[in-house]
Structure formats: structure tokens, C-alpha cells
Design goal:
By secondary structure, this protein is of the alpha+beta class. The chain has helices at residues 3-15, 22-29, 74-78; strands at 34-38, 43-49, 55-61, 67-70.
Length: 80
């Protein structure tokens, strides 16, 4: 993957924040997230693995439908 693509992924991922909806994050990133798991506390974990296998993870509150956590991807910072 070229540096421009890494930079674009990093910049887009940095625009995704807590309080957004999953649809907002998908629109920013340009790809869909898949449901990985859910727990008794009402949290849903969504992920997407790009073609180079970088994992993007989001945790969404089931009741509100809002992102409550996003996984920081250090590899995006290191690759540039």
C-alpha cells in the first residue's frame, strides 16, 4: 500500500470520533464495518480489516447507536 493511501486512512480515521453513529464512520472511512460481538452491557463491537489487514475497531452503544470508543491504530502513525 502506498504512503498516500496510508495517510488518507489515518486522516479519515482521525475524523471518526465518539458520539458519531456507525453510518457516520462508514461514510468517512468509505467502507462498511462488520458486527464482531456484543456483550450484556449493550455494547456492540464492529470491525473492518483493510486489504493489508489493518484492523479498525469501533464500540457502539446499542441503545443510543453512538460510538463510545474507537481503537487507535498505531501502525497508521508508524507507516508514514
Amino acid at each position: 500500500m502506498d504512503r498516500k493511501r496510508w495517510r488518507d486512512l489515518r486522516d479519515n480515521w482521525n475524523r471518526v470520533s465518539e458520539g458519531m453513529t456507525l453510518a457516520d464512520a462508514e461514510a468517512i472511512m468509505g467502507f462498511k464495518f462488520d458486527l464482531d460481538s456484543k456483550n450484556a452491557a449493550g455494547r456492540l463491537v464492529y470491525s473492518h480489516h483493510t486489504s493489508d489487514f489493518l484492523p479498525f475497531y469501533l464500540v457502539v452503544n446499542k441503545e443510543s447507536g453512538l460510538i463510545v470508543r474507537r481503537h487507535r491504530i498505531r501502525a497508521l502513525d508508524e507507516m508514514i
